[in-house]
Amino acid sequence: MKHIILFCVLLCTYTNLKAQGITDGSRVNGSFQVDGQYYMPDDALGINDSVIGGRKLGLNGFGKITYTLGNFTAGLRYEAYMTPILGFDPAQEGNGFPFFFVSYNSELIEVTAGSFYEQFGNGLVLRSYEEWTLGYDNAISGIKVVYKPFRGVSIKGVYGNQRYYWEKYERNKRGLVRGADAEVDLNEAIGSLQSSDFRVIVGASAVSKYQADNDPIYNLPENVGAFAGRLNLGWNRFNFMTEYAQKINDPSVMNNYIYKNGHAVLSSLSYSQKGLGVVLQLKRVDNMSFKSDRGISGNVLDIGFIPPINRTHSYSLAARYPYATQPNGEMGMQFQVNYKIPKGSLLGGKYGTGLAVNFSQVNDIKRTALNDTTPVGMPGTLGYSSGFFDVSDKILFRDLNIEVDKKFNTSWKAVFQYMNQYFDIETLQGKAGKKPVQAHIAVADVTWRVNAVNSLRMEAQGMWTKEDKGDWAGLLLEYAIAPTWFFTLADQYNYGNPDADQRHHYYMASFGYTKQATRVALTYGRQPEGVICVGGVCRQVPAASGLTLSLTTNF
Amino acid sequence: MNNRLSFLAIVLLGLTITACDKIEPPYKQGGEVLAERKVLLEDYTGQRCVNCPTAARIAHDLKDVYGENLIVMGIHTGFFAVPFPPQFPLDMRTEAGESWDAAFKISTAGHPKGLVNRYNKEGIYYLGPGEWGTAIADAISKKADATLELEANFTAGNTKIFISANGSFLRSMEGEYFLQLCVLEDSIVGNQNNNDPTVGTTPVIENYVHRHVLRATVNGINGEKISDETVSGDTFSKTYEFAIDAGWKTQHLSVVAWVYRGSDFEILQVEEVHVQSE
Amino acid sequence: MKKYLILLSLVVFVQLLQAQQSEIPTVTIKTLDGKNFITTEISNDGKPVILSFWALWCKPCQKELDAFNELYDEWQEETGVKIYAVSIDDSRSTSRVMPFVNGKGWDFEVLIDANSDLKRAMNVNMIPHTFLIDGNGKIVAQHTSYFEGAELELYEKVKKLAGKK
Known about the structure:
The complex is a heterotrimer. Chain A is mainly beta. Chain A has helices at residues 2-19, 186-189, 425-429; strands at residues 26-39, 57-69, 72-81, 94-105, 109-116, 118-119, 127-128, 130-131, 136-137, 140-147, 153-162, 176-185, 198-210, 223-235, 238-247, 262-273, 276-286, 329-341, 353-365, 391-407, 412-423, 437-449, 454-465, 472-481, 485-493, 505-515, 518-527, 530-534, 537-541, 544-554. Chain A is built from 3 helices and 30 strands. Chain A has a 24-stranded antiparallel barrel. A two-stranded antiparallel sheet of chain A has the order 6-7. Chain A has a two-stranded antiparallel sheet with strand order 8-9. Chain A starts with a helix and ends with a strand.
């Protein structure tokens, strides 16, 4: 009863304000997405029951609404994981309003109270973001201020606690985060540099977390600070970016309670002109896991974000062994060349041919023991020492890929890729005792444009390796009637599995409808099993068979 | 304008500069710890789980701090506990363990995970090893709502254990209460996958000593109901005779018993006793 | 608490029933050079604007932008339309966007939305997602997904916008 009265009062107030024209210029926007899975038994895969991990149905959904009036914006998001889809952490189960905010946005200042996302520089010391497909959300709930006092100068401040699934924040449980960032675009700020060939942007951040020490074993620092400085230099066709971050002692379950400082460096140098782009990226990470709760492991509550610098693959077999950053230590590089062989040349053909070569490698860092009596990484000590250039011979990941992108005529175009990957499956997936996976992968993605709106895409993939599950072959056929309908049939066949009983076909059929911003897709098929090892926790995701429905729209 | 900017900058700088605790050695705490009652830590683990030896070491560091007030139980469940001969021939799984694993969603969340006094937060019972210390410190500082005394002796030529468990409720509470008994075997030697060089060799520790492994429950997966509604001073007394498995080493067996609330499984008091020979 | 929020959203929904045309929200992202770029700077002298979200790992997005690139000269001559391609690549790939764009020879203005701020503000859930904006900054059409030939339907709408003037 009380609620109905409140609703009427709100409605009347609103209609009143609207009649007075105060709400003119206001807008309501939002979107929602639902991903649902229904699991079915599958004798060949050994699934005897339609209950997987205790559930028959997985449903992940969210709906968000934003209301804007002049400089004010307010919004909220409703989420439901009833129960979470296979592969998602069971702690996500639940539903409610985890995200709501009010903000004021003007040219000089922007203030947000409530939940928000933010990134300082490259995110090394602070990045709060969400990734729905991975179930990742470390939104900060508190207050954010962005202040732009002069042209080219931007100062940010944040204060709050991070989201941890559905667990409400309690004092003395998980930590608080506060941070400040300043960025100066020298060309904008200093009038005389405005037309210079040199483009310079500098930035600095300071972040600290507070968490009470209730631990019975260790003397833990309650306030841990991390600092970063960055520089972005551009000159004609060259661009140089570098960011260095340092964190003071932060013993946590992620680094086995060592009291060593941490540091990370991310740099890149690139050259580009029309038709050619070259880039070299370098990264070093040493003990940079920075979470707002030192007792939590897993893919949650990270304050900073250490980016993996290797190519994210779009084709399924190429993405079978994805690299995940090792925040406790890694040193890597990536080199990429993009070139468009010009039209009319011999190799270029009538339309020109795209060529891309990408190479990346990540090694572990070399750790030296502090003295003769303390082993490397011993908890309750300073851990180890590692000089800036100390890199170990142990290769964690290596990926060489070559891509050729060609349009033959108005009806036919294709993308061809060859990859050579090295994946240390023991370190990266916890498969103890297994040799690193070395694989050759080839993909051919051919599109036949039947007529103006109908097209047929054929994708053939192959993976050849002696390790882990052996060789795979994949085939996909997708027929589309632009811009509305698509039908897909696909199969991934593990024909080379050393265990003959495990040579399964993982087939899939799906069809979908897209109209404007709405997309609905229904898929029936099998998913292979996998092991997910993230943040010191390994869990096995069983193979599954069933129906998946995905719906997204906005308004 | 300039003043405003400087002021803001100083405030922001102040916020962060005051926030830096550099710790000097010694890094580990010494000294006395407060314990009002005994607490149970269940360590869900597996012989092929590479992250688990680190968790087992944390459990032992905590046992060093709390002594006999912390009772640790290692429960081998799920995918990572499945035997894999010839390197992993042992099967340390139990029917109870697998049932609790499914009920508390341990395997879905990933090993290693632990339960402290089966306390739950909004339906989530499991805790990562980094959270065990603070959870135990919290639970162990709360006064007990029940007392529990336990005695276990071998009979019939060391093939059976005679157990007697009795205790009382210290205040009036609603709800159903249960008594759960388990038999544990300590020091089982076998191989263990490992990725932490400070604990042992990687990728496998040979002749790893598996401590306090759950071998079986004495009175069923859910124990036995001992009260429908308690009144301060109510007592309970139960005896059991349990036949052990021939493969278990009699000198390493112990019995763990606990009283728990039926509605949410939370443990009121727990006790452990080494099985005495005849 | 939950119930009040549900009520609040219901009130707001009432407003929704009177559909209003949306504008691009005001969000600060970056250019390829790393400079701040506020979305209010998106303009084309009253001529139509196409805003398309893409990423280095999204093949259909790249196919859509390749298709736009081939027709861009023609489109610009006929209607003066301007294309903004917003990359949602985060800091793992931000430095690879410029070389990639140049290697492809794309002529659009490329913006970097590294923390997905604009993507969230414009309620984009899956990419590719492309918006058509008229001369007054109002969003007149949008579509998600890309299949060969979809650009033709988009262009019909662009022509209508340009002809309308």
